[in-house]
Input
Amino acid sequence: MTEHVTITKAPDTPETLDFEALLAAGIAAAQHYSGQEWTDYNLHDPGVTILETLVFALTDVAYRTDHPIEDILASSASTADPALERQPFFPGPQAFASAPVTSNDYRKLLFDQVSGLRNAWILPHPGPSGAGGHYDVWIQPYATDVAEEAQPARLHRQIEDDAMALLRKTRALGVDFRHVRIAPTAEFALCGDVTLAPEADPEAALSAMLFAAEIALNPPPRVEDIDEALASSAAPETLFEGPGLELGLIPDSGLSPPGRDIDLARIRAAIIALPQIETVHGLMAPEKPCPRGCDAEDPCPCALCADKRAAALVIPALSRKAADLEGLRVFRRGAQVSFDADKVLVQLRHREEKLRWEEHYAIRQVANSDYSRITLGNPARQLARYRSIQHMFPGVYGIGPDGVQGSAPLAEGVADTRAARDARQAQARQLKAYLAIFEQMLANHLAQLDATADLLALPSEGPSYHVQPLTRPEPSPDDATALGPILGQPETPEPGRTQGWFTAYKDGLAELRDSQDRPLERRNRALDHLLARFGERIDTAELKRLYDDKAQPLEIFERWLLDRKAALLRDVIALGQGRGQGVDLAAPETCPLLRRIALRSGHDAPMFLIEHVLLQDDGLEARIGREEIGTSFAISAPLPRSAFRLAIGDRAVHWVLEPDPALPPLEMLLPQLRALGADPAHYTTSPERSYGTTVCLVGPDGLSIEVVENFRSRSHAADWIARMVATCQGAGRDARALDAVFTPVVMPLDFAARGATLVLAPDASGTSPARRAYLADIVTEEMPAHTLPAMLWLDGETPQEARDFARAYAAWCAAQLCVRATRTPSAEALAAGAQASQILRRQIHDLFCREFRALRARRRGDAVQG
Output
């Protein structure tokens, strides 16, 4: 008969809970190890009885271990009492959110977190000399109510300031928000004949019509309820993609492009869709004239009209004046009806306020949603409770609560003597001691389970292994009975020493635990596992190899490493989301990217991230050798003397001079450069394998020059050497001619391409080459793919250099913040920002030149040794 393969309806029993399977495995092991010494495995055999009892205890331990993890955490937290905030738990909306990246992300964030903002749009801003990465933000506030109309300018400035502060904190790396401004409006009024439904109220119908017209042109972002979205079976990771919001979910489809024109077809469709409106005839929407009454002049000279002409975005807005409703004629049941214009506008305001309230009502949905809360399970699980298996043995064994007195009588023919009773007591105690070995392991496992919340807490202190006693001086109903004498309790208690045996027992357990427990090492491994669940890693082995103070105890390193891992795990969401964020100019020390690099690399010395997009000031050319800014002011900084651009037709090469404070002034240095470059004998080439061929000039007076560009081969280098010689020989000797050939420039040359410069200070003990190489690997991993920074090191032997750079960096951040803190920066603020940028460029330039020459020297040395 064919046997059909079927799927059982009963759920699979885990192996750890299968009593029969565990018992069979235990008997099989006993048969294997005992051989001919034990041949009776029937149920009446005492050995099988002991095995059954131990297997039952194992299934009970497995049952509790298999509790839902939320129950285990809740129950263990109620006993260990670690605060919930110390646990590495993150609610869904927080875990799935990311930092804003796209323009839609920033629009959602602004609408969500800036009070009074109705809409926002992000438009590219033509940066200095056409450089990219700059944006303007145009915002539309809600219409002010009657109480606020006296101070609309103050409210608008507050909205602008709040929006700029938010953008400054969430700005992406390589992005600069130049201005945040209220979008100017072009007011219009509706004119035409409107036929109402027979039962429609004129004022309510007209207010609904005006409201629909304005929403049709520029609707605010659409907020969706989080609970309804989750109930629709949408994937949470898709719902919460983008910046973390408080009001609710704003899908990309809920954002509309700015309505720049008065679209009558869209307005008509929105009005006809209203149930109060039957027909609309002769609909027009003329733009209102300038309120200053200066339309006679073209162009209008008033500031309001000038702002509109200069703005990249002008928003059509419905007029809120009662007189502008006179162009509407209202009909109902074939007859014209009158309406109260003021009442219409009041109802229109109510509709707008209702919309604003509905959009912000969802804030409670996000805060109170189950998906937004960390909920634990049943806190009443008694995880650590262990009831001794000795209570489960039949009384004949003499190890239960009744002891030997409750056991079976002595065997037939054995006299009931004191010696016989003592021998029976010794047998029972022998069995108790044998079982205590297994029971101690079972009890310790439950104690370990009860410490789960403490083991996962941040920071976590104390041992990583946990134990508990099987008995106490005052036994509980669950304790093993009469176990004290086996553990050293005297048969006749001595006064004042009744608990000495118990102290020795507990100390022995602790000593045994400590001999097997390396809590710092085990907690480091546990944090490795938790970090891996978030896709994070701190390389313990590599940091141990590079750890500086190897003379100190290993525990110091492990504690140092544990603190770093705990810090990364504690802020893993914020640090992960902020990895692509730029530096907050108001608090540059809080940069998430730099904190991630410091935690992962072990580099605790200062680091400075300079985004090149912020070094491009208004009015300052992208080529950073320029000293003049426009025509209004000049930069009082010396021309660089350590790097020059050598123009060769429409091409160019760049020379870096050996840093030497004794270099002559520029007017004396240029003739020396011409003479050096005009003699082909001063040029040397060096092959550097895959690095290409490099060119160096060495003069008789010790002047040394490195050509920055690499050449494909020696012949390619020889061709360019000939060009450089010809250029220098053909250059005139007067200052004007030399200036046309040799242009002082500030390095690095790939300033715009790399996008950022990371300047690092060495540790107090210096930073070894191996640690620098490891740090470079971490920086490469952490930096966003579109931005590869130039890494430059400050001189560890000159602490003053690090202090000078830190001061220049702080001054630069403050100056750039001042430029971006006002809608129209003053000339003094622009000059201070440009001056600070110029100083910082010069310091980066000096570091680059030094690093460049050192790198060339190392590579040439490696090539010679190879």
Q: What stands out?
A: The radius of gyration is 40 Å. The first helix runs from residue 19 to 34. Confidence is low (pLDDT under 50) at residues 619-637.
